[in-house]
Amino acid sequence: MSDTDPPSREADFQLLVQGVLDNAIFMLDPTGHVLSWNAGAERIKGYRAEEIVGRHFSVFYPEADIAAGKPARELETAVAKGWYEDEGWRLRKDGTPFWANVVITALRDDTGELRGFSEVARDMTGARTAARALWDSEERFRLLVQNVVDYAIFMLDPTGHILSWNAGAERIKGYRAEEIIGQHFSVFYPEADIAADKPARELETAIAEGRLEDEGWRLRKDGTPFWANVVITALHDDTGRLRGFGKVTRDLTERRRAEQQLDERRRLLGHLVQAQEKERRRIAWDVHDDSIQSMVAVGMRLQLLAGRLPEDQAATLMRLDEAVRGTISRLRSLVFQLRPTAIDRHGLVNALTDYLGDVVVAWGLTPTLRAELATEPPSETAITIFRICQEALVNVRKHARATAVTIDMASEDGGIRVRVIDDGTGYTGVDAPLEHFGLIEMRERADTAGGWWTISGVPGRGTTVDFWLPATEPGPGPDL
Q1: Which among 123, 138, 169 is the end of a domain?
Q2: DSSP conformation class of 471
Q3: CA end-to-end span of the chain, whole Å?
Q4: What's the rounded Cα separation, in Å, for the pair 308 and 402?
Q5: Where a domain ends, among 210, 234, 251?
Q6: Residue 426 falls in which region: left (phi positive, over 0), alpha (psi -120 to 50) or beta
């Protein structure tokens, strides 16, 4: 018998069917009873051939499906249409369910008589679990995006037309989804930006670089402008084909307004500090050029006169001369405090070093300065730090009964943190209450500069004046 004879081909086909492991392939008679059983059916459903052949195929269905007459309806549909396909739960021999893809085909002979059915079933449990997990993940992500209200998150097609719209986009931009989906995203841009072709250029940049980030004015539905931070991301599929863009927008109007107010406050601080320093310099010059020079002249005359008088009278004049020289020394100290080493020329650390060495040492205190600054602060900030330190040191001299004082200064959180620490009697709020003018002045200087100021102490263990000032240059001012 040749290899092409029908019995041989039928035997080969039987071997093929029997050897399939990934699909349950079996025959049913016209009433639905199992006639044949392959290795795949045994692997998937758990029955050996001798256990299942002759039984009705409804044994594979959950009780609810049997009660609803589903097995019979599937055979009826296969008879009517020639075949039937379904996905649903089926049962293994041990009663555990699995998700199956089932194809039932009606088999007829040459006369058209129904001879039975073939059934091919695949176990899709793993694929369904993975698909369900993917769907759940996508659904959670969709719900997350849809319900975010602080960010406008939406999709654009490759030409810039809107495909999706979340709750944040509706809150920020004012459009409902049905009003905006399908429109071009350039509707959010001011006329000047549209005339300059800014929307198209942003998409081109996102394609070329993968993403674009921008801050600028955008328009709400009612035409009012808001200051937006915008990120546009080009979205490509696995083949590299551009599928569209993801767009995330934040309304930064309030933050920008706060930054402008802070910048304005810093500019006002700069003007205030400059005015105060100018007045201090004027007073220092007046004291130096007028009062001190006059006192020096008086001292010289007293010395000259003392040389011409009898010894007993000369002694009195010399005591007067000593008093004049003491006054001159105090006036020169006052001048130094009013007009210390120029911070603009020598820097904050050098100015404080000079002040500690020339003034604080003369008070009988041992000063220490520890400074770790990333950069030299702006002039107004440096002057404000110097003046607060100066006032804190004066308070140490007047109230603390200390022997040593330390200034710790370091860059911190975009500003400069300063601690003035003494080893004196300790602040209690009694000897130097917060209503004291010097403390009020320090606190107001820090507040005006946009920083903070505190004072604390432990009786017998010293006092710490602690403050922080921002160290950024003021911006160009608010848009008009």
Answers
A1: 123
A2: -
A3: 100
A4: 46
A5: 251
A6: left
Tens digit of pLDDT for each residue in 357-412? 888 998 999 999 999 998 888 888 888 899 899 889 989 998 889 999 999 999 99
The pLDDT of residue 476: 46
- Check whether residue 212 and residue 326 sit in a common domain: no
Q: Residue 384 is encoded by which pair of tokens?
A: 């404000």
Is residue 138, in this structure, part of any structural domain at all?
no
> In angstroms, what is the C-alpha Rg of the chain?
45
Which helix (H) or strand (E) covers residue 51, if one does? helix 49-52
- For residue 31, what pLDDT is reported? 95
135 contact partners, CB below 8 Å, separation of at least 6: none
Instruction: Tell me if residue 189 falls in helix, strand or coil.
Output: coil
CA gap 166, 146 in Å, rounded: 4
Residue 412 domain boundaries:
345-480
The first and second tokens of residue 368, run together, are: 């220490």
Q: Say if residues 25 and 45 touch (Cβ distance below 8 Å).
A: no
Residues 104 and 76 in one domain: yes
Cβ atoms of residues 383 and 346 within 8 Å: no
Q: Are the CB atoms for 424 and 392 separated by under 8 Å? A: no
Task: With H, G, I as helix, E, B as strand and everything else as coil, classify residue 401.
Answer: coil
CB atoms within 10 A of CB 213: 14
CA 437 to chain centre: 41
Q: Is 86 helix (H, G, I), strand (E, B) or coil?
A: strand
Residue 287 has pLDDT above 80, yes or no: no
pLDDT tens digits for range 235-244: 998 899 999 9
Q: Both 331 and 349 in a single domain?
A: no
Q: Would you say how long the chain is, in residues?
A: 480
CB 119, CB 60: distance < 8 Å: no
Q: What average pLDDT is seen over the chain?
A: 84
Which ranges constitute the DSSP H helices of 287-407?
293-306, 311-338, 343-346, 348-355, 379-395
What phi and psi values does residue 41 have, to the nearest 5 degrees?
-65, -40
Give the number of other Cβ atoms within 10 Å of residue 133's Cβ: 10
Which amino acid is residue 459, in one-letter code? P
Q: Vertex 346, ends 466 and 404: CA angle to 5°? A: 40
Residues in CB range of 451: below 8 A, 6 or more apart: 415, 467, 468, 469, 470
Q: For residue range 253-265, list pLDDT tens digits in order.
A: 888 777 777 667 7
Q: Is 79 helix (H, G, I), strand (E, B) or coil?
A: helix
Strand stretches in 174-308, DSSP E: 211-219, 225-236, 242-251
